[in-house]
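User: Quick sanity check before I run a bigger batch. Here is a single chain. Can you write out its predicted 3D structure?
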Amino acid sequence: MIESLIPKISKRRSFSLFIILLICVFPSEGQNMGLRINSLAGTKGSLPFWMWANQLGRYSEESQAVQNLELNGTYRTKIGESYFSFLGGGRLNLILADKSDIRFTELYGGLNWKTLLLTAGAFADQEKYDGLSTTNGNLAASLNARPHPKIRAGFNRFVGLTPWLSIYGFYEEGWLNDDRYVTDTHLHRKAFYFRIGGASSWQVTGGLEHFVMWGGTHPVYGKLQGWEAYLDYILAKSGDENSLATDQDNIIGSSYGTYQLEIKKSWDEIQLALYLSHPFEDQSGMEWVNYKDNLLGIFLTRKEQQPLIKSLLLEYFHTKNQSGDTHLALTPEGTLHGRGRDNYYNNSVYRSGATYQQMAMVSPLFTPVRLSDGISMGFENTRFSGFHLGATGFLSETIHWKGLLTYSNNFGQYKGDGTDSYQPSRKQAMSLFELKWMPKNKSFDFGASIAADHGSLFDQGNSTTRLGAQLSVRWHILN
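Assistant: Done. Predicted structure follows.
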């Protein structure tokens, strides 16, 4: 079986050899490597939600039993006496399940120069809020799906312009190379943030992230506009006479994004963060017509090393408004244009929506992913509300715990008459509890977790209870 999986690695072989060559040429200033074995099992032919969600696409909801052998590591070194430094990393997974696979979940290299960073490959965003958030604090960019190949250029941190003002941002182009409705789709992403305040005072961070799916080959319309229309895509303009009719009437490509806001304050013993992520799909969302739709969160973490409760997070999420239940609205000029029924992260042309490898790249609460002949066709449920609680801490000096509890009320989508596609709504509760034993002065740690779901979201409206358990062992080869 392993021999049949080897060709899947060959597509990335050249890049892998390049990373290994650089590691051999330049001596290391910082590196780590770990080997982990995970064993997961669930009832009813599937895993509970929090055993597969936000796991970088390593586990499938539809797998009842999974064995995962993972080798991961990062590497960083300064190049000579210059300001340049090289970084690299990878995560190789051998998955034994109903659909076995061997793959580089992450594989990337980067070049640092002072405050600038250029990174290429498949890499995940940095984890925030101790990994307790439903979507890493950003509705449009979670740690749920496997990272896709991309190139990102930008700052490696917030850069100070004055003692009280700093900025951060990046520009990214990626390629969605999975099996999808529009093949060879590109994914553009750019972000800009500003921060007011110093580390010892209140800090206010605000910004905007913009995503565009563009190009590729449509099964009906053929090859879509590519680089010749690039500026129209990234500037969110309407298409020209060579564009699809829908792109001439609206914005070309599949464009979406978020407004991001965080307010942070640090005291002697505790740090507080309040955050908001507001989605937009078009002009109505950018103008806050859908002001009710947000991810709102509060995160508290103690500076004490090993308290019983180290971090606590509470989130409220709401995506039901979507700029209203009427798609077309009358303009002052007497014409009709789209305003409501935004149907977040789905698109009529790019029908796979904001998914990669059949999993949500956005918040995993946008689910289930609809499938047709093994190809994702967007999200069945985009309108929901609910709350989420996450916490971590220590039972002793060597035993760490983590808990997650989520409740959602799901309404599906707006139908043509403005009513809900789920009638009645589908309620879902999802939970996980994890313990990790980290013996002193040892290179191993051991983990065990249990999870349970109850509700009607995942089984065509039928009320179902799913149970699951996971055992893990990790060997810290290098620290």
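DSSP finds seven helices and 27 strands in the chain.

User: Great, the batch can go ahead then.
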